[in-house]
Amino acid sequence: VSFPGDSWEIAEEPKCDKPHSDFVRFRNSCYWYSKVPMTLGDAEKTCSSRGGSHLASIHDTMELNYALSRSPVYEDESINSTDTWLGLRIDQDSQRYSWADGWPVLFSNWEYGQPKKPHGSHPCVAMTTGGPENGAIGRWRTLDEDQCRKQRALVLCKFNPSAPPLLPIPDSNKFCPPGGHWQDLGGDYCYMVSDNVTTWGGASRRCRMHGAFLTSIESENENRILHLVVKQYGKAMWIGLFRDINGNFIWEDGYESDFRNWRDHEPNDRDQSERCAEMYSDDGTWNDARCEHSYTGYICKIPKGKLNKARSVWSIGN
To answer: How confident is the model at residue 142 (pLDDT cuts 50, 70, 90)?
Structure first.
């Protein structure tokens, strides 16, 4: 049954500006998929020739799912490749990973048993994006140098107009505490991000049990790096900023910094009861909130080389 004036239109995907007008926009970046499998070398040249883009970097689950949804294997059954090249590179000496576009590696989705130490001086990484009854779709694996030269895979180019944050140069003689909870994001500190919701006071106590504090944020660069991690969880995270008895915001760990990243019209101290700060996952801006709210995860921060010796526990809120 139809009615006068009824019409159905398929929404067009948002396009990007020149020279990436044949790319499709997702969030702040532009993407282009080739339907023709290529060797890694040809794939890199293809992306570079398209407005200086790079083989794709992937920073969270939403971007991973988007990349999979754009794969041409679901539109063209004649495509016989089940892999897509990623812009992930491996330094064989340090075994550290880096993205070709310069963004830090803070998210991964390895196959079981990966990553393996590959052979050769120029290994690479591919992502499974198709194949009949393939349970590893979206998973990543390392390839040996010889495989990287000979194998053909689909090409996903990405252009991000934003400059990547600069990872501080770490002190090679200092390490993060053992246990697997701490992340080394460069520089002199280690971070633990938890999506276990709790109050600000509860988060502070949990950090102190590890010898840490809720994180202070010293600069825009540190905020951008932390946001790359936080947005993977899709929920706000407590940070170590709170109002003192004079109504001024100070950092729990005593760090003195003028840097703030409040969302527009924040902090507003609604009902004169918002004394603690959280970071939003969507854009990394901050909000003042009631300390006793328990819908928020948290970020702990500890200097490198420091043992997990519990600090004395005190509380704001519950």
So the answer is: very high
Structure tokens at 262: 């409040």
CA–CA distance, 178 with 168 (Å, rounded to integer): 21
Protein fold of 24-159:
Mannose-Binding Protein A; Chain A (3.10.100)
Q: What is residue 24's predicted lDDT score, i.e. its pLDDT?
A: 93
| Run of H or E including 201 | helix 200-209
pTM for this model (two decimals): 0.68
Tell me which of 8-12, 137-141, 191-195, 212-216 is least confident: 8-12
Homologous superfamily of 183-303: Mannose-Binding Protein A, subunit A (3.10.100.10)
DSSP class of 262: B
* CA–CA separation, 183 and 174 (whole Å): 13
Query: For 7-28, b where at least 16 C-beta lie within 10 A, e where not — what string?
Result: eeeeeeeeebeeebeebbebee
